[in-house]
Every structure is written in C-alpha cells, then in structure tokens.
Design a protein that fits this description.
301 residues; alpha/beta; Rossmann fold; five-stranded parallel β-sheet; two-stranded antiparallel sheet
Length: 301
C-alpha cells in the first residue's frame, strides 16, 4: 500500500510540522484559529453522525470524512463566499466549510424538513444556493462535468468567481473526468479540480484499479497546471488552492490538485473495512491532520 508521503510516519509527521511552522507566519491568527475550529467541528460532527447512524436514528447511506478534514477545510478557507463548491457523496465537511450551518446539515441526515434539502436529500444530496454549495452528488464523478459547466457560466457572465470541484480518486477512471479537463483547458474555464486521493475506491486499493497511480500527472495530457499536495497538511492544501485560484481569477485557467489523504473509517458506515490491516490504519493515524495542526499552533504559541 502506498504511503501518504515518502519516509516513515514519524518522519512524515516531523516534515509536516516543519513545513507548517514556515507557513504559519503567512496566515493571520484569526484565520488559523478559524481553520482549526472548523477541522475540529467537522471531526466532532462526523463522530456524532456515526453514533446516530449506529443507533438507528438516521438511515440510508452515510460516508464519513474522518481523517480527511485538512482537504475540505484547507481548500475552502482559501476561496470567497461567492465562489462555488461541488463535491461527491462524502460531503458533510464541504457543506459546513462553505458556510452551511451544522444544524441544517444534521437535520438533513435525520430527514427533517429543517434540513438543507428539506429532509429529502439525506447524506449524499445536500444543497444550499445561498452559500453557493451546489451539492453533494451520489454518482461517482457526476459532479465533475457539472462543476465544469458552472465554471463556464462564470466566464460567460464575466465574473471572476471560481469553482472548486472535489472528487475521489476512483472518479479519475470515469470518462467524465477526462472530457471535463479537456473542455476546461480548451475553453479556459476557472475550475479547480481537487482529487481527494484517500487511496481506496470503496474497498479497492488504488494500485488494483489504476494502471498509473500518479494522478496529478494525468493533467499533462490536457496541458493543465497540476500539483501533488500532502492532504494531511491543512496549510499546504490552502496554499496550493490559493495558487490555483490566482490562475483561475487572472487568466481563467483550470488546475488539477491531487491531494493525498487517508480516511480513518470505512468507505461508508456499512463498510467493516476488512481489506485494510489495523497496522496500516494506525500508521496513517499518526499523521492525523488535526493533531498535526494543533501541535504546530501550540509550538508557535
């Protein structure tokens, strides 16, 4: 199984702390605290969602984001309120980070009329036009062409809004991914494609599903700017997104970010995750993005 970055987990942890220490000076204190609070809020939200699901209070599908918090929080912290976000079925964190209230998101899980989709969308189909969060899409890769269309609309209207499109690595094998990247570069669309590579598509490892696992390099085929980012480092994600935003706002250029992360839970609440060893999970938990960021903040006072 591929590691999140080169070296042992202990060395990776030291590397992230060192990198974060250098980046902290570039972010104001209020933003740093907000990022940490949001990461912690999402973690606690997902833990409570798991409890509610296990006790039968919510039903249907439920895909948790525990372990991946740095990706959504880091990226969305870099955009403006009028920018757009589209994502997959693993969407609770993105919805909250974009400005939706945790109460409306949780109410949606419970199927209440006070939920963001009036209780009819559930965990995988959240939406709030007031904050430009355009879903939550259950079909693997289904959001990618939609996000491309939203970016086209922004360019057509002459605004400088950007669109963040989040998806898992399994979506890269879908034709819609390649068609969308080709169109985005051909038409110069302000779309930032963020591949949350948590290294498993359901229970299938990346190595078993993709002949070339270097996802960021796939952008070369379409002459698109791309970066590989450590998804356990929230400030690294934020900085990479800021660079992509500059390209999008200034020149209407798309970017592909491969953000290597790891989910600590199963694919969904019904997944026991027996395709992974406990030792593998524990190796990655040593690089818990919240603990890493918390430690960096404490060291800097």
């Amino acid at each position: 199984m591929a590691e999140t970055a080169a070296g042992s987990p202990s060395q990776q942890t030291r590397d992230v702390k060192s990198a974060q220490k250098n980046r902290l000076a570039d972010v104001d204190r209020e933003t740093l605290i907000s990022i940490y609070r949001q990461m912690l809020l999402v973690r606690r939200f997902e833990e409570k969602s798991a409890e509610a699901y296990s006790s039968g209070k919510i039903g249907g599908f439920c895909h948790l984001y525990i372990g991946q918090e740095a990706v959504a929080i880091g990226a969305i912290s870099a955009i403006r309120k009028d920018d757009y976000v589209l994502t997959s079925y693993r969407e609770h964190a993105h919805a909250i980070a974009k400005g939706m209230s945790p109460e409306s998101v949780m109410a949606e899980l419970y199927g209440k009329s006070t939920g963001c989709s009036r209780g009819k969308g559930g965990s995988m189909h959240m939406f709030d036009k007031d904050v430009n969060f355009l879903g939550g899409h259950a079909i693997v890769g289904g959001q990618i062409p939609l996000a491309t269309g939203v970016a086209f609309a922004s360019k057509y209207k002459g605004t400088d809004q950007v669109t963040l499109c989040f998806f898992g690595e399994a979506a890269v094998n879908q034709g819609a991914f390649h068609e969308s990247l080709n169109m985005a570069q051909l038409w110069k669309l302000p779309c930032i494609y963020i591949c949350e590579n948590n290294q498993y598509g359901m229970g299938t490892s990346l190595e078993r599903a993709m002949s070339s696992q270097d996802i960021s390099q796939k952008a070369r085929a379409y002459d698109i700017a791309a970066e590989f980012v450590d998804g356990m480092d929230v400030l690294a994600v934020r900085e990479a997104t800021q660079r992509a935003i500059e390209r999008a706002r200034k020149d209407y250029l798309p970017t592909l970010l491969e953000v290597r992360t790891y989910r600590f839970m199963g694919h969904s609440m019904s997944d026991p995750g027996n395709y992974r060893t406990r030792a593998e999970i524990e190796r990655h938990q040593e690089r818990d993005p919240i603990k890493l960021f918390s430690a960096s903040l404490k060291e800097e006072g």
